[in-house]
Design brief:
- The protein is an alpha+beta fold.
- The chain has 2 domains: 118 residues, 2-Layer Sandwich (Phosphorylase Kinase, domain 1); 238 residues, Aminoglycoside phosphotransferase (APH), C-terminal lobe (Aminoglycoside 3'-phosphotransferase, Chain: A, domain 2, Alpha-Beta Complex).
- Helices cover 44% and strands 14% of the residues.
- The strands form 3 sheets. Strands 1, 2, 3, 4, 5 and 6 form a 6-stranded antiparallel β-sheet that branches.
- Strand 1 and strand 2 form a beta hairpin.
- Helix 9 runs parallel beside helix 13.
- It is globular and about 60 Å long.
- The termini are far apart.
- Bound molecules: adenosine-5'-diphosphate (ADP), 2-acetamido-2-deoxy-1-O-phosphono-alpha-D-glucopyranose and magnesium ion (MG).
Length: 370
């Protein structure tokens, strides 16, 4: 699908959003695994303005109009929060523009679904973390995101991907992929399959706690990968949480665990050299301190108790998803080379092992801040 999108198409699609001025450039942008992202630059009367044009992956997000309704509600809430505090909200959350029909999605003649929002300038994203201060700031910002949305009416949000972090259900999907072996890759991944099967008991720990009413459901982001936060170029403050497609009902543990998975690894999540992989305990501590400084007051004792476990579980879940996709023939995550999903899986499983070996230390660190 992606290769079929011609330069000319981007030009035409951009015009549907009624931006005044001339489109002077557009380029692919960012490292997202799901959507197709472009940066556009317009010029008018000597001034330039930048926008993000995104093709929503409708294989993954089946109801893009419902999804945009979620996002507009959430971004409106965040905007009001900052405005009420007298803080300029323009760089604090995403601002979408309607297309000429008044909708916030434009469907092109090939059925592709597009949205457009303002580019936040003088900010950057990280694929890996280079300092404890920055990761502490990421924790504070993701915690603040959750805290701001604690006053958002959760009943108005629909699940853009049902059971997104239901690890027990994802385990069933994984077993089906093993059984079907549709891409004929099973013999190559025997060790990885055994790795997953031997950890079945972990898969239902959080779902059981939810069923027993021991963990509160909250409005959460659910994809708190470290590259889904913008840092201010000057101050290095975590200014804006982006990639809001999966904002829906969830556990605070999902947001904590997924950011540790992606940011406290000693290397990138797809580094094929697993010797480089491991949990950086200084980064873990920095994130705990930042996250608890903003989200902590609202967290229950059970939530706090399971923070270290969530780091392990979310890493395991992600590795299992990469493996499932590899077994299915790479139909979900964008890959850059044939064994990309397998490298990602092995990387995540090495991180799971390292977290298991450091679990006592992680618990002790967490307790210092609870
Ligand atoms: P995906 O769902 O595919 O991960 P994202 O929404 O995360 O897509 O966007 C991909 C990348 O584009 C981000 O990691 C970030 O680098 C960049 N990006 C997205 N939105 C903005 C924005 N408003 N301002 C600046 N950069 C952005
Ligand atoms: C995807 O879209 P992106 O790159 O932020 C995925 C996450 C995974 C992540 C792993 C909707 O995130 O769940 O953790 O890849 N998002 C979706 O890199 O499936
Ligand atoms: Mg993203």
């Amino acid at each position: 699908m992606e290769n079929k999108i011609l330069d000319m198409d981007i030009d035409i699609i951009a015009l549907k959003f009624g931006i005044s001025g001339e489109l002077i450039s557009f380029n692919k942008y960012g490292n997202g695994n799901i959507n197709g992202t472009y940066i556009l630059e317009f010029s008018k009367d000597g001034d330039t303005s930048k926008y993000i044009l995104q093709r929503i992956n409708t294989e993954v997000f089946k109801n893009p109009f419902g999804l945009m309704k979620n996002i507009l509600g959430v971004t409106g809430h965040i905007k009001k929060y900052y405005n009420d505090k007298g803080i300029d909200s323009s760089r604090r959350t995403l601002e979408f523009l309607p297309c000429d029909s008044g909708d916030y999605c434009f469907i092109d003649e090939n059925g592709n679904c597009w949205r457009l929002y303002k580019f936040i300038d003088k900010a950057y994203t990280c694929e890996t973390i280079d300092s404890a201060e920055k990761f502490c700031e990421a924790g504070r910002a993701f915690g603040e995101f959750q805290q701001i949305l604690s006053s958002y009416d959760v009943s108005t949000l629909f699940d853009t991907i049902p059971d997104f972090h239901n690890t027990a259900k994802r385990f069933e999907v994984f077993k089906k992929a093993v059984e079907e072996n549709s891409a004929g890759r099973l013999s190559e991944v025997k060790n990885e399959v055994d790795f997953v099967l031997s950890r079945e008991n972990d898969t239902h720990v959080l779902t059981d706690l939810i069923s027993d009413g021991k963990l509160p459901l909250r409005v959460t982001h659910n994809d708190t990968k470290i590259n889904n936060i913008l840092f201010d170029e000057k101050t290095n403050e975590g200014i804006c949480v982006i990639d809001l497609d999966t904002v829906m009902t969830g556990l605070s543990l999902y947001d904590f665990g997924d950011c540790i998975r992606s940011g406290a690894n000693k290397t990138a999540e797809d580094d094929p050299n697993t010797d480089n992989v491991g949990i950086d305990l200084d980064l873990y501590e920095a994130f705990v301190s930042g996250f608890l400084s903003s989200a902590g007051k609202a967290l229950t004792d059970t939530e706090k108790e399971y923070l270290p476990f969530s780091a392990k579980l979310l890493t395991f879940e992600c590795g299992m998803r990469f493996l499932t996709d590899y077994l299915n023939g790479d139909t979900y995550f964008r890959i850059k080379y044939p064994k990309h999903n397998l490298d990602r899986c092995r990387n995540q499983f090495k991180l799971v092992e390292d977290i298991e070996n450091n679990m006592d230390k992680m618990k002790a660190i967490t307790n210092k801040y609870c």
